[in-house]
Amino acid sequence: MPWTFHRAVDAALDSDHAWRDLVGRLAMPGSGLLAEHVPWLARAGVWQFHVGVQVRPGASYKAYVAAAYVRSWRTLLDARTRP
To answer: Is 69 helix (H, G, I), strand (E, B) or coil?
Structure first.
């Protein structure tokens, strides 16, 4: 059964403990995700990412999804090698 832990690590009193509890599950970071987070998350075994405003001009949900932005995220992920 899929679970959503919206900001679970951000709001935890002990973020290291929360991360250890969650990292073994299928994780898909999203809200607040920045490109510079991807290498660190990939090293921790996270290979799926939810991008929303990250692929829209002006980081607005009112804007269209820009193919060039999507391509840049895809390129970033493809550059990472899986363990």
So the answer is: helix
* Average pLDDT rounded to a whole number, residues 17-36: 76
Between the alpha carbon of residue 17 and those of residues 10, 11, 58, the distances in Å are 12, 12, 35
Instruction: For the full predicted model, state whether its pTM sits above 0.70.
Output: no
How far apart are the C-alpha atoms of 74 and 81, rounded to whole Å?
Answer: 13
CB 29 within 8 A of CB 49: yes
Q: 10 Å Cβ neighbour count for 9? A: 17
Q: Where are the domains of the chain?
A: 8-79
Tell which wins on pLDDT, 13 or 65. Answer: 65
- C-alpha to C-alpha distances, 83 to 36, 46, 64, nearest whole angstrom: 19, 11, 34
Res. 21: pLDDT tops 60: yes
d(C-alpha 66, C-alpha 69), whole Å: 5
